[in-house]
């Protein structure tokens, strides 16, 4: 059975690094909501008639359309996301059910201090100024959302990995073992 793997977690937890490794090693079609959002928003800044909200909605629509087309023809997919809304989780579940695919989740997290340290190191002109309080609020919101997703049984498998004291390779080893145990495509 084909899988849609969602690698999620707060900023600085290691999502992009892990997603890249899984995508490359397994030949999964990987889509990052952060990258997709930035790409669409850059069009808004270049004089598009779309508002930022419309641009983000357009990016989300593109991602879902790619999955709608890929999963039924057995193309494994991977979604790298910070905090999908609860309605997005429900929509992902329906999409997987329609395509007879599994929805497998790897939730990454780290201590608040580690998240803040990692986020402060990633500063770039495209990323707004680091704000510790905002980051911690987002991390708490992510943790609460994932508890709800897990308790409602929206995912076929759900692995939580705290990356605070793990190397990238150790994180990958734990995630891939969890996905293999779940019967995902690894």
Can you offer a commentary on this structure?
This protein is of the alpha/beta class. The protein has a domain at 3-29 and 77-179: 3-Layer(aba) Sandwich (Rossmann fold). It has 7 helices and 5 strands; from the N terminus they run βαβααβαβααβα. The chain has helices spanning 15-26, 33-45, 52-70, 86-98, 112-121, 132-151, 168-181; strands at residues 3-8, 29-32, 77-81, 102-109, 157-162. It has a 5-stranded parallel β-sheet with strand order 2-3-1-4-5, with helices on both faces. Helix 2 packs across helix 3 and helix 5 packs across helix 6 (132-151). It is globular.
Assembly form of the protein:
single chain
How much is the radius of gyration in Å? Answer: 16 Å
CATH superfamily of the domain at 3-29 and 77-179: P-loop containing nucleotide triphosphate hydrolases
Gap from first CA to last CA: 12 Å
- Biggest sheet: strand arrangement: 2-3-1-4-5
How large is the count of helical segments? 7
Helix content: 40-55%
CATH architecture of the domain at 3-29 and 77-179: 3-Layer(aba) Sandwich
Judging from the principal axes of the Cα atoms, what is the shape?
Answer: globular
Q: How many strands, which pairing sense, and closed or not: the largest β-sheet?
A: 5 strands, parallel
Strand content: 15-25%
Classification by helices and strands: alpha/beta
What's the total count of β strands? 5
TL;DR?
With 186 residues, the chain is α/β, with parallel strands linked by helices. It has 7 helices and 5 strands.
